[in-house]
Design goal:
The protein is α/β, with parallel strands linked by helices. The longest helix has 14 residues. It is globular. The mean pLDDT is 95.
């Protein structure tokens, strides 16, 4: 199975309050984005990789890699107005015959088993989306009222979201609409059933300062 991974790294870092895009913040002397890249290289040293960055961040990242001695052994794609457009730019580099995964650049704690399950599911069924059960109670809110809902019908969605290549490329030929919150929603809009696999609890998206403290503990271990 030929594998491709598109890593989307277009965050601004406003909620971090770090004064720089969150994907470049260092954890244990290494940028978050580099931790993420290495997770997929360890999964498959031959994986075809694309990193998507905003135009105004590309030279900064290249300079940082040069200073740190990181090899840029991947393609760099230019991000777009919305995440949808960024992913569309990234997957253009990928082989339609490969299984293509899409991953958030600020999820450096993804487990190797999660990556493996997602890619294998996509190879067999067309898609593989890591999910976790919800352990908290949920309430549906409408206006000033709310009501309890059965949490067993809901899952938390993670990345990498993996798909058979041609299926994903075809899905991204559609026009953008605001309801496309992730890649599964784009593919699903074509009437395709989505397969889910088990994620890993520590595979959080780093968006707040407290997330960084959690990640430092895991990466340090």
């Amino acid at each position: 199975m030929k594998q491709s991974i598109v890593i989307s790294a277009g965050g601004s870092g406003k909620r971090m309050g770090a004064g720089m895009p969150k994907q470049f913040i260092e954890l244990n002397d290494k940028p978050i984005l580099q931790w993420t890249i290495e997770k997929f290289r360890h999964h498959d040293p031959e994986i075809f990789m694309v990193v998507v960055l905003p135009m105004d961040q590309i030279q900064f990242w290249k300079g940082l890699c040069e200073r740190k001695g990181y090899a840029i052994d991947y393609e760099i794609a230019v991000g777009g107005k919305e995440r949808f457009h960024s992913i569309k730019n990234g997957i253009k580099f990928c082989d339609p015959k490969s299984v293509i995964g899409i991953h958030d650049g600020v999820r450096p704690l993804v487990a190797k088993d999660t990556i493996k399950r997602a890619f294998e599911s996509a190879a067999k069924t067309g898609s593989g989306i890591p999910c976790l059960p919800i352990n908290e109670s949920l309430r549906y809110v409408e206006g000033s009222s709310s009501k309890h809902v059965d949490r067993s019908h809901f899952k938390l969605v993670q990345t990498p979201q993996c798909f058979q290549g041609q299926l994903l490329l075809d899905a991204y030929q559609q026009d953008y609409i605001e309801s496309y919150t992730d890649d599964a929603s784009v593919v699903e809009s074509m009437g395709v059933d989505i397969s889910i696999v088990e994620g890993n609890p520590e595979n959080i998206k780093l968006t707040r300062p407290e997330d960084l403290r959690v990640a430092e503990l895991y990466l340090g271990a």
